[in-house]
Amino acid sequence: MHSLIRTHATEFSLLGVIVVISAVLSFATANFFSLGNAFDLLNISSVNIIFAVGLLVVLIAGGIDISFAVAASVVQYGTAIALGWIGGGGWLSSFVIAASLGVLLGCVNALLIHRFRIISIVATIATFNIYFGLLMFFTRGVSIYDLPDWLTDRVILFEREMPDGTWIEITLPVLVMIICVVATWTLITRTTIGRQLFAFGDNPEGARRFGINIGAMQFIAFGWLGLMAGIGGLVQAHYAQEVVPNALYGRELDVLAAVVLGGARLGGGKGTVLGCVLGVLLISITQNGLNLMGVSPFAFKMIIGAIILIAITLSNTRLERLLPFAGWKGTRR
Q1: Please, which pLDDT band fits residue 229 given cuts at 50, 70 and 90?
Q2: Using one digit for the tens of pLDDT, what is the confidence trace for 56-109?
Q3: Are strands 156-161 and 167-171 parallel, antiparallel or unpaired?
Q4: Burial of 125 (0-12, 13-18, 19+ CB in 10 A)
Q5: What pLDDT shows up at residue 330?
Q6: What is the DSSP string of 257-273?
Q7: Where, by residue number, does the polypeptide cross the bilayer (predicted)?
Q8: For residue 33, with 0-12 CB atoms within 10 Å meaning exposed, 13-18 middle and 19 or more buried, which class applies?
């Protein structure tokens, strides 16, 4: 048990923090500690978790991408227009279209990074502005409300009436999120590609000398994030029942903070799916609690900034240096 805690210190720490924050918020607010609120949090967090597991793969490979949320907005619009062209389509065709567009946009980033040797943060800042600028220019900021009925109809997988008359439910976004989480976990922990991504992120030059195809790693990592962005964008359109050009704008920092908080190292070569999911849930719980307490959303932005700083500091500093009095030696993963 002690070995398990040492090797998964980040995940256990996040669980502890989530329990403490939830306990505090349950006393500070009247509605936080309820099954209905917990299920709402899960439904609301689904899109961010889909984005997060995609970003996790990029961070493991030693890159960074801040354009995925805007890319998801482009995918939303492109998919909605394509569905109009083909007469409405269905879930299968929409997933194929959204996934293809997402992978394409992700591969554009990979091309800029690998072929033109542009640092990933610079390349994705550029594509962030290009994607968003083109989207707003061609759409003129106009939202799409006339979507196919199958896309806007809520798909409830589980529902139950509570004694107080309220309903709890699990919707389609949760199922899609679970599939994306399992697929990402399989990719990075059960495949040769996953091991190569970790090796490449930890030591790019060593990976190259070992014979790992560097270009393939870049395209797989950013293509996977593009795939998750495309799927997440479609799920967001289903959940919101509309396509708004700037609806996802700004969400990239929330997701980045959650993934880094979950143990992913910005230098590459480290990260787990469980830590990533727990990081998103911690961010969502904090935001939900502040909203219930009536705290300004600007305060939440300050907290996100602080979380990024703290998480980066912890990821670059050995735990025993931060807690020398504990006599405990952490294990770097």
Answers
A1: very high
A2: 999 999 999 999 999 999 999 999 999 999 988 999 999 999 999 999 999 999
A3: antiparallel
A4: middle
A5: 41
A6: HHHHHTT--TTSS---H
A7: 12-35, 41-61, 68-86, 92-112, 119-138, 170-189, 210-235, 255-283, 295-314
A8: middle
